[in-house]
Amino acid sequence: MTNEIITHENKEFKNVDYSGKTLRNREFFKCKFISCIFVKSDLRGNSFEECTFQDCNFSMTEIEGTGFRNASFIGSKILGIDFTRCNNFAFSFRFENCIMDYSTFFGTKLKNTHFVKCSLKEADFTESDLSSAVFNDTDLTGTRFLNTILEKADFRNAKNFAIDPEFNKLKKAKFSAFQLEGLLYKYQLIIS
Fold first, then answer.
1. Which top-rank group of organisms is this from (predicted)?
2. What single string gives the DSSP state of each residue in 62-82?
């Protein structure tokens, strides 16, 4: 078996089904993946730089050691992914209209990441750095924030979050006055 790196640049991959397949030793630069299926695929050790994934399905995909630098996910299903196993040196994203429920971001650095119109139900951001992240029209039902850096993060249009200010860094984080319940939930206050 060869360890030769295969490089793809400025290519478009459309309607490709990679379900259950192993793709290794690949570098993708400025590529577009449209309506591709990666369910239970093994993408370990690959690199995706400035790539766009539109209407793709990444449910239960193995991404250990995989680098995502300036990767955009639009309208994609990304269920149960363990982002803690990614290459942390190549780790920057933008998510729009994505379903990302049950994903784990424990201890990851996600500064300036945008989550726009996403579902992040039951996700785990424990000990993550989400400084200046934006959660715009994103559902955070059951999502865990513990010892998370949320300084300058924007939650003004986020929904259904529960964040304990005593166990997270929130300096200059932005919240709507209508969302106080999500910050004060543990005190069982009645806010009207």
1. Bacteria
2. B-TT-EEEEEEEES-B-TT-B
Residue 90 is predicted with a pLDDT of: 65
Tell me which residue of 20, 114, 96 sits closest to 59, measured CA to CA. Answer: 20
CA–CA gap between residue 83 and residue 50 (Å, rounded): 18
Beta bridge partner(s), residue 129: 109, 149
143, β-bridge pairs: none
> Which parts of 18-169 are beta strand (E)?
26-29, 32-34, 47-49, 52-54, 67-74, 91-96, 114-116, 134-136
What tens digit of pLDDT does each residue of 69-86 get? 999 999 999 999 999 999
Reading the block at residue 58, the tokens are 């990444």
Instruction: Give 181's pLDDT tier (boundaries 50, 70, 90).
Output: confident
